């Protein structure tokens, strides 16, 4: 690996160990075996590097969301399968989701990071569309990403917050699915 990749891998390890706020440029350099100047050269700033590392950590974790899908895309069963897979990642020690809450809560303090992550969030919404509907990401129309994808991303933020705040009372996939079923039932009553 070159310095760019070493920095990124070191930043990932630092984020998981120390979080965003407590990670210093020196921590990243020590963890990556590089030098301080290489951060600016390759990423522009420590915050830009950490934002990129965070996005890659989320992308790596999102592979676990797929799991073994048996239910038809778009069905309540698929909804339950996907949320079961997502929630399983929230149970793991050292979960990335605690880091995610830190990043969300400090967005106004780091506008460069917030802007970078806002662009990544749109792609995350596109990924949710593919995951729940079976539609290939590159075929998801912007209107679907801006509605259904945003719906799933918003639900994800709420679930993430609840699991971070109090895992004992956080919702399970079955509860989310039953809630959605009741919303559908109420909306389709004649």
Layout of SSEs?
Elements: H1 3-22, H2 25-32, H3 36-43, H4 46-66, H5 76-91, H6 96-105, H7 111-133, H8 142-165, H9 173-188
Helix pairs in contact: 1-2, 1-4, 1-6, 4-5, 4-7, 5-9, 6-8, 7-8
Describe the overall structure.
The protein has about 190 residues and is mostly helical. Helices cover about 75% and strands about 0% of the residues. Helix 1 crosses helix 4 and helix 4 packs across helix 5 (about 75-90). The radius of gyration is 18 Å and the shape is elongated. The chain starts with a helix and ends with a helix.
- Mean pLDDT value: 90
Which regions are unreliable across 5 or more consecutive residues at pLDDT < 50? none
CA-based gyration radius: 18 Å
Distance between the termini: 62 Å
The count of helical stretches stands at 9
Short description:
With 190 residues, the chain is mostly helical.
List keywords for this structure.
single chain, 190 residues, mainly alpha, 77% helix, elongated
């Amino acid at each position: 690996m070159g310095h760019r990749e070493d920095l990124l891998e070191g930043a990932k390890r630092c984020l998981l160990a120390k979080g965003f706020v407590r990670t210093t440029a020196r921590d990243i350099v020590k963890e990556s075996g590089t030098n301080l100047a290489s951060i600016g050269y390759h990423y522009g700033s420590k915050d830009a590097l950490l934002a990129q590392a965070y996005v890659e950590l989320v992308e790596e974790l999102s592979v676990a969301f797929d799991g073994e899908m048996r239910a038809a895309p778009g069905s309540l069963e698929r909804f339950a399968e996907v949320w079961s897979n997502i929630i399983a990642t929230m149970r793991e020690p050292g979960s990335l989701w605690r880091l995610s809450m830190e990043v969300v809560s400090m967005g106004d303090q780091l506008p460069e990071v917030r802007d970078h992550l806002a662009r990544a969030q749109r792609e995350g919404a596109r990924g949710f569309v593919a995951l729940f509907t079976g539609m290939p990401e590159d075929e998801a129309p912007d209107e679907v990403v801006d509605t259904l994808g945003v719906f799933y991303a918003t639900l994800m933020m709420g679930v993430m917050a609840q699991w971070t705040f109090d895992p004992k009372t956080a919702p399970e996939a079955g509860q989310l699915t039953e809630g959605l079923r009741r919303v559908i039932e109420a909306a389709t009553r004649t």
